[in-house]
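[stage:ingest] chain + small molecule (FE2/S2 (inorganic) cluster)
[stage:ingest] validated
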Amino acid sequence: MLVYLKIFRYNPEAGRSKPSYDTYNIQADPNDRVLDLLEHVKDYSDGTLSYRRSCAHGVCGSDAMRINGVNALACKVLVKDVGKEITVEPLLGLPILKDMIVDMEPFFESYRSVMPYMINEDVPEDGRERLQSPEERARFDDTTKCILCAACTTSCPSFWSDDQYVGPAAIVNAHRFIFDSRDQAGDERLNILNDREGAWACRTAFNCTAACPREIHVTQAIAEVKQAISTR
Ligand code: FES
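[stage:predict] done
[stage:export] C-alpha cells:
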C-alpha cells in the first residue's frame, strides 16, 4: 500500500528554526510499523531526520511520539492500524530539541523527585531476602510495568497547562513503592505528592490511561495515591 507520511521537522542548528513538515509517499506493507517508515526515510531520503529508538520492541520506551495526534510508541503502531495518511510529531509539553526528540530532563526530574527506589533500612533477620506474599506483590504489580516513555505525562492536559505538575508517570512510579510491603518510605512519598503540583493536580481526564502503551491503569493508580494521602 502507498502511505502518505507527514513528518514534523525542527532543527534550529541547521536553519530550520520554524517548525515545518516534510512529506513522503512510501510503499509500505500493512504490517510495517511506523518506526519502519521513519527508518526508511532516514536510510533512503534524509539522514538528518532525528528520533529516539533503541529496542524496537516496545520495551525501552524511547520512541514515544504523536502518531496521528495520539501518543504511542512508533515501534508498536502498525501501518494498517493508522491508515494511509500518517502524521508523526513530537510529544507535547516538553521542549523540542530536534525533530521528534524532546528534552526528557524535566520528565526525569519529576520522576526522581518521588524517590523511585526501594527504601528499607532494616536488615532481614536471616540476613537474606525480604519476603513478600503473592497478594502483597500483586498490590503494585500493575505499576511495575512502566517503561518511562512519557506517553502518559505528555498526554495530560493538567501537565500541558502546568509544567510544574509532577505528572502521571512520576505518580505511577511512586505508587509502585508506596504499596510495596517491603518499603519504608511510603509516608515520605505521600507527603511529596500531597501538593497542588503533586497528585492533586490530576483532574481525572483519563488521557494518561488511554495513552499508556503498557496498558497500566494510570488514573486508577493516581486515585489510589490520592486515597492513601487522605486516609493515612
Ligand atoms: S524502540 Fe524501544 S519501545 Fe520502541
